[in-house]
Write a structure and sequence with these properties.
By secondary structure, this protein is of the alpha/beta class. It has two domains: 82 residues, Urease, subunit C, domain 1 (Roll), CATH 2.30.40; 289 residues, TIM Barrel, CATH 3.20.20. A hairpin with a 5-residue loop joins strand 1 and strand 2. The longest helix is centred in the C-terminal third of the chain and has 15 residues.
Length: 387
């Protein structure tokens, strides 16, 4: 008999019926049923009393480089295991293993590692790769190593997609380096989520790229031009162009709390995707680390290159979600959209993840009204239990 989890007495944020007060039953890795009353589960089921708390879908982090001392660019099974094991404690049940601009052989190794990786029960699901770079604008490189930046190359991308086992789901690139739109069009037509980032493209250049297949902006406000009264730039494009969704690092550092409010009020939760962009120091103490072969100093709240440039984050998804919930007019429903529903739709996995519905993966979080995490369930297995 397949294992099952029975959660009773919870406010369940469902896919179709809104918030339902009742119970949920999993079977194996899937959600079996949502009930509006208690039922009698099998004796083998793990029973959790929700105590009136909120049951929401697990977070999907579409942009994360590392955690708990591990980095995707380590290119080892142990690194992905470490990340997948650490992330449920912050509510992340699925993630894109994110690369960085590096030597081609290092990217090769990281992609092959993801292709070979086998999902482990009770850990976050590696649902693909986010290829961040190397096809970016040097002047907006941020923490991406300058010496490894390349011009868009369909042949090189085809090789990497093959090495990854067709796992590349998102690519961050500078659209202004694809004047004809041929590269973006190829990516979009092959099912890849094309995200403009590390870019100096103005509003018109972003708008021009949309018919070719640009559908997202990477870590909005960071490594791109801001809003100017004569050119509202990439940030303004997120405000104005409804074909675009936008990643957002909600740590209050990469984007100030006031700007988070401005973005939320103008872009809306329907088009925002919360990410962490975290590096290996997440979950560890302050100290000296590395990112993309570069030394990084990590303080209590941020990661910095020697020149003061932010080097990813040490943000946890649960912290970002709570930061957004504090904004004016924000609700748990809005947070569910930004952390689960939108990324699942953007990555083409909404048929199995991103919401609570029978038949979908049993990726679930039990949280209080302030989004403090009590339980994380990854594909039907209790992966984390809080206080």
């Amino acid at each position: 008999m397949e294992s099952s989890v029975y959660i009773k007495n919870a406010s369940i944020y469902t896919d179709e019926d809104g918030v339902v007060n009742g119970s949920l039953l999993t079977e194996g890795t899937k959600i079996k049923a949502v009930h509006t009353k208690e039922i009698v589960p099998t004796e083998e089921a793990v029973v959790i009393d929700g105590q009136g708390l909120n049951l929401i879908p697990g977070f999907i982090d579409g942009h994360i480089h590392g955690a708990a001392g591990a980095d995707v660019m380590d290119g080892t099974e142990k690194a992905l295991d470490t990340m997948a094991g650490a992330l449920p404690a912050e509510g992340t049940t699925s993630f894109l293993a994110t690369t960085i601009t590096q030597a081609s052989e290092s990217i090769d190794k990281a992609l092959e590692n993801v292709a070979d990786y086998q999902l482990k029960p009770g850990k976050a699901d590696v649902i693909g790769v986010h290829l961040e770079g190397p096809f970016i604008e040097p002047s907006k490189k941020g923490a991406q190593p300058l010496e490894h930046i390349l011009e868009p190359d369909i042949g090189r991308f085809k090789k990497w997609q093959q090495l990854s086992g067709n796992s590349i789901k998102t690519i961050t690139m500078a659209p202004e380096h694809d004047e004809t739109g041929e590269f973006i069009e190829y990516l979009h037509d092959s099912g890849v989520n094309v995200s403009g980032g590390h870019t100096d493209a103005g509003f018109e250049a972003i708008k021009k790229a949309i018919p070719h297949g640009l559908r997202q902006l990477t870590h909005l406000c960071n490594a791109m031009n801001g809003i100017h009264h004569r050119d509202i730039g990439a940030v303004g494009a997120a405000f104005q162009l409804e074909d675009l969704r936008a990643e957002l690092i909600a740590d209050g550092i990469h984007v100030s709390p006031e700007m988070l409010q401005l973005i939320f009020s103008n872009v809306g939760s329907e088009r925002l995707i919360l990410i962490t962009d975290a590096m290996r120091a997440k979950c560890l103490q302050a100290g000296n680390y590395e990112l993309g072969g570069q030394p990084v100093t990590v303080t209590e709240d941020r990661a910095l290159l020697g020149n003061g440039t932010l080097a990813g984050s040490i943000l946890k998804m649960s912290e970002g979600a709570r930061q957004m919930l504090q904004l004016k007019d924000a609700s748990i429903h809005n947070v569910v959209q930004m952390t689960s529903e939108n990324p699942a739709k953007q990555l083409g996995v909404f048929d199995r993840k991103g919401s609570i519905k029978p038949g979908k993966d049993a990726d679930l979080l039990l949280v209080d009204d302030a989004l403090n995490l009590k339980y994380t369930i990854c594909r039907g297995v209790v992966a984390y239990q809080g206080r």
